[in-house]
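It is worth pausing here to work through a concrete case rather than discussing structure prediction in the abstract. The textbook approach is simple: state the sequence, then state the predicted structure, then interpret. We follow exactly that order.
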Amino acid sequence: MFTKMKNIDTAFRYVRGFTMLVIAGCIIISCYAVYKGFQTVSHMQDKVYILANGKAVEAYASERKDNIAVEARDHVKTFHKFFFTLDPDDKVIKTNITKALYLADDSAKRIYDDLKENNFYSGIISGNISQTIQIDSVSIDIREYPYRFRCYAGQNIIRTTSILKRSLLTEGALRNVSRSDNNPHGFLIERFNTIENKDISAETRK
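Step two, the predicted structure:
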């Protein structure tokens, strides 16, 4: 009788101990699953999917301070491409210049006004001239704010009978502004100035 009671008590302790281990294991597994779930959600929130040409392209979100130099260089390149890419079409010129002036302050507007007053754009249209730009490099100094930059580029002036190659060196500063559809990088070019713009070579078109 006492032996049976002892065996039952021992079996109960074993079952209770096993049950406690199972419960503890379930709690540990549940906590780990919750932790991994939060970690995965947090990781997914850093991803951005951009729709380009009908395809979803994965990108990663990051702090602005991690990409200041990259965004600043692209802002400068974008401005120069809009400002210096011209075709003999008044609508194209106005569209490109308008986009460029969203990215810079009145220092660029003054240059545009001077060129317009000197009939530069009228000459582009009447002479059927196209102007293209190739950005060689952009240097950004992010040690001090506003960020100073220099842009090294080349230009092709394409006329009916010839192609003129020119070198272009500009400088300016960048200050932070709010991002918008017209200014996605959130920078504004200040004190824009052309340091050098000289002829390199000319070739006759065949």
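Step three, interpretation. The mean pLDDT is 85. Strands lie at 47-52, 55-60, 130-141, 147-158, 162-176, 187-204.
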